[in-house]
Amino acid sequence: MLHMSQSGDPLHMAVDTGGTFTDVAVRGAGGKMFVWKLPSTPTAPDEAVIDGVKGALARVERSPQELTRFVHGSTVATNTVITRDGARVGMVTTAGFRDVLAIAHQARPSIYDQHKRRPEPLIARQAIIEATERIDADGQILTALDETALEVAIQQLAPLELDAIVVSLINAYANPAHEHRVTEIVQQSGVAEHVVAATNISAEMREYERTSTAAINAYVAPKIAGYIAQLEQGLTQAGVQTGMRIMQSSGGLLSPGDAAEHPARTVLSGLAGGVVGAANWSTHLDLDRVVSFDIGGTSTDIALIRDGIPDETLSTEIAGLPLKLPSVDVHTIGAGGGSIAWLDSGGGLRVGPHSAGAEPGPISYQRGGTEPTVTDAHAVLGRLGDELLGGEFSLDVPAARDAMHEWGQELGLSAEDTAEGILRVITATMARGIRKVSVERGVDLRTCDLMAFGGAGPLHGADLAKELNMRSAIIPPRPGIASAVGMLDAPIRHDYATSVDVSTTEALVALGDTFATMRTQADSDLDNPEAETQYELLVDARYIGQSYELTVAWDEDWGRQREIFEDAHEQNYGFADPDAVMEIVVARLVVTQELEHGALESVESIDADVSPTSHREVYIAGAWQDLPIFQRTDFGAQTKVEGPAIIEQFDSTIYLGPDQVAHNDTYDFLHIHQAT
Description:
The protein has about 675 residues and is an alpha+beta fold. Among the domains are: about 10-80 and about 225-265, ATPase, nucleotide binding domain (Nucleotidyltransferase, domain 5); about 85-215, Rossmann fold (3-Layer(aba) Sandwich); about 490-595, Dna Ligase, domain 1 (2-Layer Sandwich); about 615-675, no CATH class. Strands 13, 14, 15, 20, 25, 26, 33, 36 and 37 form a nine-stranded mixed sheet that branches. A six-stranded mixed sheet has the order 3-2-1-4-11-12, with helices on both faces. Strands 6-5-9-10 form a four-stranded parallel sheet, sandwiched between helices. β25 (about 450-455), α12 and β26 (about 470-475) form a beta-alpha-beta unit. The model has no long low-confidence stretch (mean pLDDT about 90). It holds the Pfam family Hydantoinase_A. InterPro entries: ACX-like_C (IPR049517), ATPase_NBD (IPR043129), Hydant_A_N (IPR008040), Hydantoinase_A (IPR002821), Oxoprolinase-like (IPR045079). This is Hydantoinase/oxoprolinase family protein. It comes from Yaniella flava.
């Protein structure tokens, strides 16, 4: 039992539900933290959340009524899209545009792969009807809406027994009048319970992306709404009295009502939690450039953080489908602990992207896995012992070694050399992913620190920092539950966007009225308008003729606005064009309310001197070495460990290579550097 101080003190909890495990973080006064993992319940994910809440509070001897903050991140929306287990959705679009989702960009997803196919749209063609109407790109009505013909056409959808209908009309972002009227008519027809206008989900140009985003939102909405309702009911029955907040892809928090209405904003919530945590930790550590590096069982999620702010994107993908909503800019690669090793047609060793997943999992997990994975390689080399999660999970290392030996015979290598080869290959794959978010954006990795977390991140952090010549690898206090811990201090956030057409000084100044309108809407959406609120005014700018924009701060002075844009253009693309004409196409308002950050738990009182609790044979560079095994819970503020060594903790294992040294700081962040 971990006792946390009683009544009156803040008590915060975050629960992050993944496909395999549900992670729980509980924070009390003084930053005292308790973390816990339990198996997820994919068929009823709310059950694991409720069990996690009850179990974690029992372990810290506190009651549900004492919770003062509850944050939840979930993969329910993500998995619904990936598994194609969502709602039956129909659509109404402008006459002549019935195939907007099927045609997409008219580009093959992989130009040199004749077998690669674009994902099927979430809305079947037979569930799409057309409305006679047309609005041009300036918002002018070219053809009036034929309401009588629409009412007749709607009845074609009745036999399909649809759950939701999306209304997405061409150029509605410029003038949503027809789209809103069609939505009213479809609602009155009663052919589906949920009807939504695409402009209420994403009111920006680019019809395919806007329609795809609305389709994703409608596809996951019934399941998310039901899930949130069940979860709120379960929390109430459990005695939780504080309001729940839902993590969204942008790194901010939504109310349950907003999340149920705009569930597409939660598609990347699990990824965002860890990035938000890494951003807050980088600020605390006064690091200007950090690469957030989160390794799970199937994938690695990588993000760049500059001056405490994660890079963001306004357009991403989920299962190959465009999603035009703000999100942290995470680059995901198919490289994780469960990534499977295989040989290509030329006999070369490859690792991933396919994974053993949670079932059957790596060979060492004893769940029926038969193919060697990255986790098995760590086990064979001795980096992992024969148990995880503080002894709650056993590993069958001999089985992994036997399989590695048999598989390695095809390569003419021993089991150990095969395992080292697997790790070298996966290190190269992960290094490419890190370069994707740094070097390809003009950032010198020699000026960056690597924040490594996730269950497997600390096993690879030291190797990658050395491989890429980064300043250091940093392991946060509880890396295996970092996403849940990171969510605890995420801000409340709302995003608004309005399409505009600005290319003159007068029009730029007039944007003040546009921002004022969005601010009025934002103030009405805030649960607590009296709280301290930050309003960030942004614009999407480009040179006329360009296809894509850069989001920069708004300034009502045209000269200054152009300077801001061209500085960003040069930083991103390496040049600016003083002769080109600049235009602004979208005005954005980001509204945030920061929650009071909890304290970080200090280890100042713990003695800096540590001794290994055991030793283990670990295979390094072709030879077995006897390495000391340390327990991280023994580390104090000035603890120093020289490599090679293994550092174990409940939720992860840290590998420290030769010629490396690890220093612990006051708040239990472990800094790994090359020895000097």
